[in-house]
């Protein structure tokens, strides 16, 4: 331990010696006549008693002018400097994780643009942020799997969108490939589900033909009616999915229009400025301020990473729900035969609604926390950070109010299968 401290102390002294602050005196030019200047060298220099005391005054001695003893201790000053240096080194090491996470999220969500140049530019246009995520301004989070266009308008309320190029979101080629793959698997699943449904129809018809008990005939008759409903749903699934996507986009467009109105009124989100300020001051601060900034960048990066994972999961889950949707209609007549309720289809519909409408909910909450409270965050950045971290709690409260809580689709389907057994 002593060897480590000695090495750090030597490194700090060496750095202070090499990069010491230097001052340079520039010779001033004067047009005054030299004869007008007094000849100071020819006059004897006199010293007052106070001046002599000032020149000979040393630490830990009594000042003859005031009688006070100085409290300067070189060892305390050196130890304090070492502590500050160690704190700075530890904070910078810990800050590698959140800064790397922010950089990776920016690169992934940069829509194929040069993210490094965007980060180092003045506007930080392509930096990952909760605002760009919840207002559908990141291409890889676009869940309209039946739209293969390379550009999407940020605001498209019944076609009333702006023609400006700045109002478009670029969809990366990788996301377009995923969309086409999901759409293809959806049509394959629908063809397989249609074949299975025909087999179910043959089975129900045979059972109705050989049944002699009236109760059995009534049961298979109701199953046949449920099968017909399932066939209608099978061919309407595409439209059902599109209707929910359109409704979700309409709510999101309304929130986006409110955001533009607030920006026009002079209210802006503090999130990007907060991130830029924290990152800049991390490299220019020290001591307690650096420790506070380290805690803030960790909290902000954690909040960003949480939203990043949430919307990655949302994108994957919506694609998965679209692919398995035709198979849900196969179980529709079987579910209705038991208690006249289609649990699998109801669960699928609820999960689809949650994953689609969670984005407009986030957008509305973000407007409340980030825009209306922007002035508070300007004077108290810590409160602004707390507002951003409170968005998931507000979302949970909204979901409880509208009863939109639900667990993973796979776990719910497994639970239904166990009950049937």
Structural summary, described in words:
The protein has 421 residues and is mostly helical. It has one domain. It has 15 helices and two strands. Strands 1-2 form a two-stranded antiparallel sheet. The longest helix has 51 residues, at 214-264. It is elongated. The chain starts with a helix and ends with a helix.
How would the blueprint of this fold be written?
Layout lengths: L1 H17 L30 H8 L17 H35 L6 H6 L9 H5 L16 E3 L14 E3 L2 H38 L3 H51 L6 H12 L4 H44 L1 H8 L3 H29 L2 H6 L1 H9 L1 H11 L7 H12 L1
Antiparallel strand pairs: 1-2
Helix pairs in contact: 3-9, 6-7, 6-9, 7-9, 7-10, 7-11, 8-9, 9-11, 9-13, 11-14, 11-15
Helix fraction by DSSP (H/I, runs of at least 4): 55-70%
Sheet with the most strands: spatial strand order:
1-2
The largest sheet, given as strand count, sense and whether it forms a barrel, is: 2 strands, antiparallel
Strand content: under 5%
Shape category: elongated
> On the 0-100 scale, what is the average pLDDT?
76
Low-confidence runs (pLDDT<50, min 5 residues)?
Answer: 11-32, 47-61, 120-126, 407-421
Secondary-structure element pattern, one letter each: HHHHHEEHHHHHHHHHH
How many individual β-strands? 2
Distance between the termini: 65 Å
Total individual domains: 1
């Amino acid at each position: 331990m002593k060897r480590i401290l000695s090495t750090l102390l030597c490194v700090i002294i060496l750095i202070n010696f090499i990069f010491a602050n230097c001052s340079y005196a520039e010779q001033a030019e004067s047009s005054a006549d030299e004869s007008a200047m007094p000849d100071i060298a020819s006059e004897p220099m006199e010293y007052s008693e106070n001046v002599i005391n000032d020149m000979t005054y040393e630490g830990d001695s009594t000042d003859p002018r005031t009688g006070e003893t100085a409290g300067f201790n070189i060892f305390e000053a050196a130890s304090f400097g070492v502590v500050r240096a160690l704190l700075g080194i530890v904070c910078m090491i810990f800050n590698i994780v959140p800064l790397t996470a922010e950089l990776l999220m920016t690169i992934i969500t940069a829509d194929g643009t040069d993210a490094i140049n965007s980060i180092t530019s003045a506007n930080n246009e392509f930096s990952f942020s909760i605002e760009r995520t919840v207002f559908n301004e990141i291409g890889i989070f676009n869940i309209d799997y039946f739209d293969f266009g390379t550009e999407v308008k940020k605001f498209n309320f019944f076609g009333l969108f702006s023609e400006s190029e700045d109002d478009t979101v670029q969809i990366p080629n990788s996301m377009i490939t995923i969309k086409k793959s999901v759409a293809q698997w959806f049509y394959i699943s629908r063809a397989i589900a249609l074949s299975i449904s025909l087999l179910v129809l043959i089975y129900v018809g045979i059972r109705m033909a050989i049944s002699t008990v009236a109760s059995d005939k009534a049961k298979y008759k109701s199953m046949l009616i449920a099968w017909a409903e399932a066939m209608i749903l099978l061919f309407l699934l595409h439209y059902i999915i599109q209707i929910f996507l359109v409704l979700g986009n309409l709510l999101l467009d309304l929130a986006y229009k409110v955001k533009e109105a607030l920006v026009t009124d002079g209210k802006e989100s503090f999130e990007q400025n907060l991130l830029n300020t924290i990152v800049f001051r991390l490299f220019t601060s020290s001591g307690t301020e650096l420790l506070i900034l380290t805690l803030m960048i960790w909290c902000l990066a954690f909040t960003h990473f949480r939203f990043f994972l949430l919307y990655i999961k949302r994108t994957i889950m919506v694609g998965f729900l679209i692919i398995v949707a035709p198979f849900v209609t196969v179980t529709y007549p079987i579910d209705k035969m038991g208690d006249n309720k289609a649990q699998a289809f109801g669960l699928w519909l609820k999960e689809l609604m949650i994953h689609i409408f969670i984005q407009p909910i986030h957008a509305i909450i973000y407007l409340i926390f980030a825009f209306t409270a922007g002035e508070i965050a300007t004077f108290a950045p810590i409160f602004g950070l707390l507002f951003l971290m409170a968005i998931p709690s507000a979302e949970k409260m909204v979901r409880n109010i509208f009863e939109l809580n639900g667990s993973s689709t796979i776990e719910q389907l497994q639970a239904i299968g166990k009950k049937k057994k």
